[in-house]
Amino acid sequence: MTAEADRAALSAALGRVARGEEDALRDVYDRTSARLFGVCLRILKNQVEAEDVLQEVYLTVWRKAGSFDEARASPTAWLAALARNRAIDRLRAAGARRFDIALDRLGPAEPPPSACADIEPSQDLRRLERCLSQLEEHHAEVVRTAFFEGVAYEALARRLDAPLGAVKGWIRRSLMKLRVCLET
User: Fold this and answer.
1) What's the rounded Cα separation, in Å, for the pair 40 and 21?
2) pTM (2 decimals)?
3) Residue 167 burial (CB < 10 Å; 0-12/13-18/19+)?
4) pLDDT digit string (tens) for 29-57?
5) How confident is the model over 105-160, as pLDDT tens digits?
6) Is the four-CA dihedral 45, 51, 52, 55 of positive or negative sign?
């Protein structure tokens, strides 16, 4: 199945979930659970926690499938955002905000696999990377760290030894630039 056909089938399945069709939720789960589990596991670094969050994600899908808008995001990106946000919420609830590594020492010169590595290696991801490359390098790295690695804003501020408001501002302005770039 081509990426476009897979995307269309997943969008259709989400539409059926929105209408309350249980078999459609099973279809969405079968198509996406491995990828979404990977997103949760990368953020939480704990298999049991990731499994719990994954279950919460599919409960959210069942309740909110009607809010999916294919014009705004691909179905895989929408689902990955749900998983990412749930995993970060779980980290925050557990008080896991201990990060003492400076941003310029995040890891090896070769970038680590991101949450997007398992998500739809398609035109959407290439567009996102192109738009990220148009940001200031420092701001792009902050956005990648916050959204692909799941690092909370407070932890980023500590890493950078920067005021929380400044970090939030960098991310907010960067996201606005990304939105404009992705809409063109």
Assistant:
1) 25
2) 0.56
3) buried
4) 999 999 899 889 888 888 888 999 999 99
5) 444 444 444 555 544 455 677 788 888 889 888 888 888 888 777 778 888 888 88
6) positive
